[in-house]
Specification:
Strand 4 and strand 5 form a beta hairpin. The protein is built from eleven helices and 19 strands. The chain is α+β, with helices and mostly antiparallel strands. Helix 1 runs antiparallel to helix 11, helix 4 packs across helix 11 and helix 6 packs across helix 7. It has two domains: about 300 residues, Aminopeptidase (3-Layer(aba) Sandwich), CATH 3.40.630.10; about 130 residues, Alpha-Beta Plaits (2-Layer Sandwich), CATH 3.30.70.360. The strands form four sheets. Strands 1, 2, 3, 6, 7, 8, 16, 17 and 18 form a nine-stranded mixed β-sheet that branches.
Length: about 450
């Protein structure tokens, strides 16, 4: 006797793999919405248009969509940029009710994308999807509007075939993942949750169960202004001090700390690289013949999940950075009277979940079902899955190919990987949430 569950899954996979035109069409619609990341104070772009498009599609298959604009963020938060507003940039949560008795599933994606610069290097309009050699090109096709489109198409495929899940599906798309993670945090605070979840980042069918967090110091080195073309007495006698030249011991200290972290046992992780500290922005000086009175260095500091404190913050990492870099410049007497100054921006907190979590196992089995070999892995950067995990919904990233062109000119995703991912998600939802019993006894009900 044939297995009705396997037969139904085979039918779902066939339908999902055959939805080429629908997948390409939806990806194209999403990419046409300019949702490139914006800084606080900048006007909204097409965020509301895109979210309403998704809400309407989900409503047609029986989901209950909710769109809301969170209140602007205030000052004093470790985790959110001050003054970020959500006017015209709603978050979306749509619940597709199950028949009852099954586990709930979160399907998450972010709708923001990075900017398109340098525009002149694109071979086609970044906001108009173009297909070449089996891949779609456009800003966001892999990171991650392609994945979002697949999530929608997976649910639509089940609906068209009359497959009723037993557990609820919570579909949630958010803003601001690329800049601060504020959208995901707002969703968690709003009450978005499920038994477990998936974020459709372009993982190449791996399951990213771990990620590093980030704290970002801007370090000010103080100097003393003076005429660059005039001889200067010793600084103790009032002479000028070149703040740019004073970077030398600081940069040496940064390099030494990085090397130490690479070899330290507490920085070893089975799926992640050690914590790191990388200077990324330098600014100093005001005039070409004036010795600079100050210089700022901004660093990207990444840290492992095990280095978050009991309150889920990176304060201990910040304290180590301050102590070590202060010590690195201590040999220069100038710094005894003019110490380094540290200013910290948002704390983007890491998280991880067990690699053998049942949903991880299910997702990888469903990838294998469509010929894709995936494994538990880590993301050395950060993703919204960490916020949902910290908020009580164990969530990992799992998605199609394409990470190699994320944030790049001529971003692309292969059509076949999008179709395979659509099929894998549809079957994953069936296995995780369960299928209403009558459908396994001879057809939809």
């Amino acid at each position: 006797m044939s297995d009705p569950r396997a037969a139904l899954e085979e039918k779902v996979v066939e339908a999902a793999l055959g939805a080429r035109d629908e997948v390409v069409g939806l990806v194209s619609e999403l990419v046409a919405c300019d949702t490139t990341a914006r800084l606080p104070g900048r006007p909204a772009r097409d965020e509301e248009k895109l979210q309403r498009l998704l809400a309407a599609r989900l409503a047609r298959i029986g989901a209950r969509p909710e769109l809301w604009e969170p209140a602007p963020t205030g000052a004093g938060s470790r985790f959110l940029p001050a003054g970020l507003d959500f006017a015209g940039r709603p978050q979306l949560a749509a619940v597709l009710p199950g028949a009852g008795g099954g586990r709930s599933l979160l399907l998450n994606g972010h709708i923001d994308a990075v900017d398109v610069a340098p525009l002149e290097q694109w071979l086609s309009d970044p906001f108009k999807v173009e297909e070449r050699d089996g891949s779609l090109y456009g800003r966001g096709v892999c990171d991650m509007k392609g994945g979002v489109a697949c999530l929608v198409m997976a649910l639509e495929t089940l609906s068209r075939l009359g497959v009723r899940l037993a557990g609820d599906v919570v579909f949630c798309t958010v803003t601001d993942e690329e800049s601060s993670g504020a959208g995901g945090r707002m969703a968690v605070e709003h009450g978005v949750k499920a038994d477990a979840g998936v974020a459709a980042e372009p993982t190449g069918f791996d399951a990213w169960v771990s990620c590093r967090g980030t704290v970002t110091p801007t370090i000010t080195v103080e100097g003393r202004a003076g005429h660059a073309e005039m001889p200067q007495p010793d600084w103790r006698e009032g002479g000028a001090v070149n703040a740019i030249e004073k970077l030398v011991p600081l940069l040496s200290g940064i390099r030494a700390l990085r090397e130490e972290w690479r070899g330290r046992p507490d920085h070893r992780h089975p799926l992640l690289a050690p914590g790191d500290i990388v200077p990324t922005i330098v600014g100093g000086g005001t005039w070409m013949v004036t010795i600079p009175a100050s210089c700022d260095v901004t660093c990207d500091v990444t840290y492992l999940p095990g280095h978050a404190d009991a309150h889920g913050t990176g304060k201990a990492v910040e304290a180590e950075v301050v102590d070590r870099l202060t010590a690195a410049v201590a040999g220069d007497p100038w710094f005894a009277e003019h110490p380094l100054r540290f200013r910290w921006t948002e704390d983007v907190v890491p998280a991880e979940m067990p690699a053998d979590h049942p949903l991880v196992v299910t997702a990888l089995e469903c990838a294998a079902l469509v010929g894709r070999s995936g494994k538990p892995a880590g993301l050395d950067s950060w993703h919204d899955a960490a916020t949902f995990t910290a908020g009580g919904t164990p969530t990992f990233s799992f998605g199609p190919d394409g990470i190699e062109t994320a944030h790049a000119v001529n971003e692309r995703a292969s059509v076949q990987s999008l179709l395979d991912f659509t099929a894998a998600v549809a079957v994953m939802a069936m296995r995780w949430c369960g299928v209403a019993g009558a459908q396994l006894q001879g057809g939809p009900r």
